[in-house]
Amino acid sequence: MSWLFPVILVVAGIVYYVLDPTQPNTWAPRCPLKLLTGWDCPSCGTQRAFHSLLHGDILTALHYNLFMVISLPFALLVVLASWYNFNHRFDRLNRMLCNRYVLIAYIILYFMWWIVRNIPTSSFS
């Protein structure tokens, strides 16, 4: 089943490359928190940022969701080190990335991003 994640990733990439979530009346789901409160959740803009990244527009992707764009390489390294650690090649990387201190730091940064992006004068959201 190690092939399932890459297949899902490729299919999602094709969908997000072809279909533009920035268009009105789009197929993309809306954030329930934003609909209820008007606040951006930490993940708001991820679909639009992913679409922009796939089209090579890094600055627009950063505008849509800075935290997601910055943490994407980290997430990919965690998946590589944890799920695809063939012949224990990534044991050292796995120990470095998948420890509780890194996880706690990531969670703190995630919630800090939630606060920062909802400050009215913030240009990050």
SSE order and pairing:
Elements: H1 4-18, H2 32-37, H3 46-54, H4 58-64, H5 66-83, H6 91-97, H7 100-117
Helix pairs in contact: 3-4, 4-5, 5-6
Low-confidence spans: none
Query: How many strands, which pairing sense, and closed or not: the largest β-sheet?
Result: none
Supply the number of structural domains: 1
Helix content: 55-70%
Instruction: Please give the count of helices.
Output: 7
Total E-strand runs: 0
State the end-to-end distance: 37 Å
Shape: globular
User: What is the C-alpha radius of gyration, as a whole number of Å?
Assistant: 16 Å
The SSE string, one letter per element, is HHHHHHH
Strand % is under 5%
Structural class: mainly alpha
What is the mean pLDDT?
85
Describe the structure concisely for a colleague.
The protein has 125 residues and is mainly alpha-helical. The chain has helices at 4-18, 32-37, 46-54, 58-64, 66-83, 91-97, 100-117.
Key words describing this protein structure:
125 residues; mainly alpha; globular
Description of the molecule:
The protein has one domain. The chain is globular and about 45 Å long. It has helices at residues 4-18, 32-37, 46-54, 58-64, 66-83, 91-97, 100-117. It is mainly alpha-helical and 125 residues long. The relative contact order is 0.11. Helix 3 runs antiparallel to helix 4 (58-64) and helix 5 (66-83) crosses helix 6 (91-97). It is 64% helix and 0% strand.
